[in-house]
Amino acid sequence: MAERFRNMQLQILSIEDGKPLKSVKLWLHPNKKISFIEQFNEKRLVKQEGENIQIIDVWSSELIEVSATKFMTPSAFIFLYENNLFLTFLNRTVAVWNLRGELVTSFEDHLLWHHNCSTNDVYITSDQDLIISYCKSEAVAEDGTVTPFGSINAREIMTGKCIAKLSANNLSVVPRGNSNSDSKRSLVQSTVSEAMEDVTALLYNEERNEIYTGNSKGLVHVWFV
């Protein structure tokens, strides 16, 4: 084994006092890059380039391997500690996995807008039951041509079911009144289509039931849902 593998020594430390709790050895191929090492509760996820993903229980040393063709290296993770699941982001797609390496949910019509799968425009609710993302969409212009705009999609994490979709197709702009108080302020007006262009940040206020988005033009929009 020494010829084919090298070991990496990892330690688990107590957050409270920094004392070592357990020492773990990882056996790695010496000539292959480490794609990621992630710790999620008692499970450690290890992936090397071209190799299967290993899910290791750090207390029992139980090992589960998942084929590299089934689980490709994602661009980002979001761990769902309440549900003992995790989200992966790869090539604009989102998937939900359990800690046995099994696919739980994949989302149709939920293609993220940004190539780099940035999680800045992805929001997970505090109950970890909904994912709200800025996604690709197709809006129809007045002349009948299809113009690409983004949409805000909300889906159930466990089922993949779409429960809401905000896009230029299903929203209209409500004009502001021209009261004296409004006339004293300088307001930037945006159409729905303009507000849905190149969103770079998204946040959902669960108490007020409002979505806040910011775009590359530096504008912030509030969506009442």
From TrEMBL:
Q: Which InterPro entries match?
A: DUF7899 (IPR057221), WD40/YVTN_repeat-like_dom_sf (IPR015943)
The name this protein goes by in its record: Transducin/WD40 repeat-like superfamily protein
Q: What does UniProt give as the signal peptide span? A: none
Please give the Pfam families that the UniProt record associates with this protein: DUF7899
Could you tell me which Gene3D superfamilies the record lists for this protein? Answer: YVTN repeat-like/Quinoprotein amine dehydrogenase
Span-the-membrane segments of this chain are none
Q: Lineage in the entry?
A: Eukaryota, Viridiplantae, Streptophyta, Embryophyta, Tracheophyta
